[in-house]
Amino acid sequence: MKLAISTLGCPDWDFMRILKEYSALGADIEVRGIDGEMEADRIDRFTPARERETKALLEQYGLKIVGFGTSCKFHDPAALEENIACAKRAIDVCARMGIPSIRVFGNDIPDKSRMAETAHTVCTGLKAVCAHGEQQGVGVNLEIHGDFNSTQALRLVVDEMADTPAFGILWDIEHSDKTCGDDFMPFYKVIRPYVRHVHVKDYIRKPGGAFELCLMGKGDIPVKAILAQLQRDGYDGYYSFEWEKKWVPQLAEPEVAFPAFIDYMKAL
């Protein structure tokens, strides 16, 4: 089982501390910000001037960067070209740094009666970015997130993207839980052929549809059943812990949450 941790969970750690802590934990790196910078082409450690040094440090600590999380989202026609350009810039950086994939979003469906139209807009953006990714040898993974977390919405996307080699799905099990709960199999069957990366996390379901993020194994997401199904189906990608500390500062510190994730996964 290949384990990674997103840097979203340690926003106050600099790059050297990330290397030391992740190496000690035995987890590879999913980048969602380094040294306070979120955009791939603005991260100092990824500049051409520091590329060789960064790669040497990763090798020294026995670590890989397994993916880069962009903020690019493709639901809004007015912002589509801007987000395509942003994703392409991230792909160029990843190709140079040897990072195998980027994460993007579909994100919102403002008018549910026009879901098919919005899904087509998302696929227009995805196809443009995937074409660039295929040229550069970088995959493009659509995260299960926002309104693109239902069987209906995802089926529209995967049907249109089915013959796009660079396209994949990043299955964030928190976001799918919000629509399918314990009965995740119908949802999973739609995305199964395309799952390239998995975000692992847990939360407590609250009345009225609210939720509270918690340490692994302390919540209500059927994590063990989901991971067992993935293993049975031969999934060989990363299980990456996305502890949303940057967005939710009151969450437990990474010194607590990260080892709890590693212990939980190793006990499965």
Which helices and strands appear, and what pairs or packs with what?
Blueprint: E1 2-6, H1 15-25, E2 28-31, H2 51-60, E3 65-73, H3 80-97, E4 101-105, H4 115-136, E5 139-143, H5 151-161, E6 167-172, H6 173-180, H7 185-191, E7 195-200, E8 202-205, E9 211-214, H8 223-232, E10 238-241, H9 254-267
Write a short abstract of this structure.
The chain is α/β, with parallel strands linked by helices and 268 residues long.
Notes on the protein architecture:
The protein has a single domain, classed as Divalent-metal-dependent TIM barrel enzymes (TIM Barrel), CATH 3.20.20.150. It has an eight-stranded parallel beta barrel with strand order 1-2-3-4-5-6-7-10, surrounded by five helices. It is of the alpha/beta class and 268 residues long. It is globular, with a radius of gyration of 18 Å. It contains nine helices and ten strands.
Briefly, what CATH class? Alpha Beta
Instruction: Please identify the structural class as seen in this structure.
Output: alpha/beta
Label the CATH architecture.
Alpha-Beta Barrel
Low-confidence stretches: none
Computed over alpha carbons, the radius of gyration is 18 Å
Q: Percent range for helical residues? A: 40-55%
